[in-house]
């Protein structure tokens, strides 16, 4: 079996990357969505309170959004699910730096050259091919010094790609995903890992199953 990596991604990864670049540049005409509203981070505020809880305990000061889309979630005021309105996420979290990386969006396509206290990835993993997920997840963990926070959808997307395929190309149950995350955690034992699984498009944010953040190496999930 071929082992894929950033230097040698699968043909499927390269095909999907080209499609996402097209959508970033031209939007989704079939949905009437222009480029500036495509992958603009509008769903990210759902996770802001979870991340705020983690940062409040760990005191993290630098963050990387891995798969940030256009990063607009950091450019404007945000409204949290509980109704609170915030000037911006950086102020809410009290961090010094938020960096964005997204290989499909030109301004953020340069791979990071340093590590961060926390790495965030929401609405990304289910868009990646199964054969590439081991190196993608391993890469995320390698960029974090304290924690990784990931949101994973367990259902087909409402979006379709320009070639007609469903945008969620990897739909699996939590146990399958946790197997991949555990592998990455074993290679980076000093990290904490947090995962938010959503089983439907309309699923609402939930309180953490553990109110207290555990020791390094422990998985906490919502």
Instruction: Give a short account of the largest sheet.
Output: 6 strands, parallel
Helix content: 25-40%
Q: Indicate the multimeric state.
A: single chain
Strand order of the largest sheet: 4-1-5-6-7-8
CATH architecture: 3-Layer(aba) Sandwich
Number of strands: 8
Encode the helix/strand succession as letters.
Answer: HHEEEHEEHEHEE
Into how many domains do the coordinates divide? Answer: 1
- Strand fraction equals 15-25%
Which descriptor suits the 3D outline? Answer: globular
CATH topology: Rossmann fold
Low-confidence residue ranges: 208-212
Structural class: alpha/beta
Which value, in Å, is the CA radius of gyration? 17 Å
Number of helices: 5
In round numbers, the mean pLDDT is 88
The first-to-last residue Cα distance is 34 Å
CATH class: Alpha Beta
Write a short abstract of this structure:
By secondary structure, the protein is of the alpha/beta class. It has a single domain (54-221), classed as Rossmann fold (3-Layer(aba) Sandwich).
Structure, described:
25% of the residues lie in helices and 18% in strands. It has 222 residues and is an alpha/beta fold. It has one domain: Rossmann fold (3-Layer(aba) Sandwich). The strands form two sheets. A six-stranded parallel sheet has the order 4-1-5-6-7-8. Strands 2-3 form a two-stranded antiparallel sheet. Strand 6 (144-153), helix 5 (174-187) and strand 7 (192-198) form a beta-alpha-beta unit. The protein starts with 10 loop residues before the first helix and ends with a strand.
């Amino acid at each position: 079996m071929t082992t894929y990596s950033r230097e040698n991604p699968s043909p499927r990864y390269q095909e999907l990357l080209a499609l996402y670049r097209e959508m970033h540049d031209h939007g989704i005409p079939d949905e009437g969505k222009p480029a500036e509203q495509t992958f603009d981070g509008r769903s990210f505020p759902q996770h802001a309170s979870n991340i705020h809880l983690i940062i409040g305990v760990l005191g993290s000061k630098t963050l990387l959004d891995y798969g940030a889309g256009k990063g607009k979630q950091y450019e404007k005021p945000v409204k949290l699910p509980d109704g609170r309105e915030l000037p911006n996420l950086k102020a809410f979290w009290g961090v010094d730096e938020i960096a964005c990386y997204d290989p499909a969006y030109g301004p953020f396509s340069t791979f990071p050259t340093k590590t961060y206290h926390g790495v965030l990835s929401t609405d990304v993993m289910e868009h990646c091919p199964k054969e590439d997920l081991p190196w993608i997840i391993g890469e995320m963990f390698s960029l974090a010094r304290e924690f990784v926070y990931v949101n994973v959808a367990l259902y087909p997307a409402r979006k379709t790609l320009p070639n007609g395929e469903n945008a969620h190309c990897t739909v699996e149950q939590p146990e399958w995903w946790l197997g991949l995350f555990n592998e990455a955690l074993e290679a980076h034992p000093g990290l904490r890992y947090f995962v938010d699984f959503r089983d439907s498009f309309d699923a609402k944010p939930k309180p953490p199953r553990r109110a207290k953040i555990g020791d390094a190496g422990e998985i906490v999930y919502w």
